């Protein structure tokens, strides 16, 4: 099949991609699918920011990642692109259930991430969902089994995991912990640990933070395996 050959080609390019020798400044210099490049172009995302240049190739290769870079440096695309690409290459469909889980500390940040996801992912076939406090859990339960990429706040995600017919995470490929320093500052450590305990151990985990600290290093040790560390950020 044509798509299989295309995916194979992408995988080979990712394997061979060497950020040290590549002069890749633009998203189109990366081995990304046509759909993602089109979605990025539509939103006028052309040139990568520093953290995107440093982290996207590492994430595309499937490594666990700890990325630290200050607020406003473009961390959202740095994890959304690898998430979308991973599921695309796995030929994910609605029948495969939840493929990626993205955890944000606040409703506001979760909503922003969800919006960027629906924008740059508009040419892909995945379903995206948002679970944040304030809406009826019952209402969300109907749709949640068909969601491929779920964005939400820690408490609400754990609440869904605890439901009798809750979130099925057995197929999960990628976990993203966004704004992890803020999650810890807001007292979500135990909730995050409980979520991570519920997830399949074989998965890719991407941890993003604006700052570095001892508690962040502790969270990384618990949630990441053999991870690469990129970025520059103040050490608290
Ligand atoms: P962070 O999570 O690091 O605080 P965001 O992902 O929220 O940063 O991005 C900050 C702003 O930069 C957003 O308005 C976003 O649209 C914009 N942005 C991110 N990446 C790019 C890019 N490659 N080109 C242009 N604008 C970008
Ligand atoms: Mg952010």
TrEMBL record:
Function: RNA helicase.
Cellular localization per UniProt: Nucleus, Nucleolus
Stated name of the protein: ATP-dependent RNA helicase
Complexes and interactors: Interacts with the U3 and U14 snoRNAs. Associates with pre-ribosomal complexes.
Occurrences of domain DEAD-box RNA helicase Q (ranges): 25-53
Recorded superkingdom: Eukaryota
Family statement drawn from the similarity comment of this UniProt entry: Belongs to the DEAD box helicase family. DDX10/DBP4 subfamily.
Domain comment as written in the entry: The Q motif is unique to and characteristic of the DEAD box family of RNA helicases and controls ATP binding and hydrolysis.
Domain Helicase ATP-binding intervals: 56-230
Residue range from the parent sequence: 17 to 252 of 764
Extent of motif Q motif: 25-53
């Amino acid at each position: 099949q044509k798509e299989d050959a295309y995916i194979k080609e992408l995988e080979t390019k990712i394997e061979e991609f060497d950020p040290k020798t590549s002069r890749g400044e633009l998203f189109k210099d990366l081995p990304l699918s046509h759909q993602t490049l089109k979605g990025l172009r539509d939103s006028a995302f052309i040139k990568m920011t520093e953290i995107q240049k440093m982290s996207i190739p590492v994430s595309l290769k499937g490594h666990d990642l700890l990325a630290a870079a200050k607020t406003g440096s473009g961390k959202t695309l740095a994890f959304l692109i690898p998430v979308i690409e991973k599921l695309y290459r796995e030929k994910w469909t609605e029948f495969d259930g939840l493929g990626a889980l993205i955890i944000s500390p606040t409703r506001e940040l979760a909503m922003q991430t969800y919006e960027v996801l629906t924008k740059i992912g508009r040419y892909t076939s995945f379903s995206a969902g948002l679970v944040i406090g304030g809406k009826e859990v019952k209402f969300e339960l109907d749709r949640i089994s068909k969601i491929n990429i779920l964005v939400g706040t820690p408490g609400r995600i754990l609440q869904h995991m605890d439901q009798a017919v809750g979130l099925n995470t057995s197929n999960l490929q990628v976990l993203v912990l966004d704004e992890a320093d803020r999650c810890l500052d807001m007292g979500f450590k135990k909730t995050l640990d409980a979520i991570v305990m519920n997830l399949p151990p074989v998965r890719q985990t991407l941890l993003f933070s604006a700052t570095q600290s001892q508690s962040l290093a502790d969270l990384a040790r618990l949630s990441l395996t053999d991870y690469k560390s990129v970025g520059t950020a103040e050490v608290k």
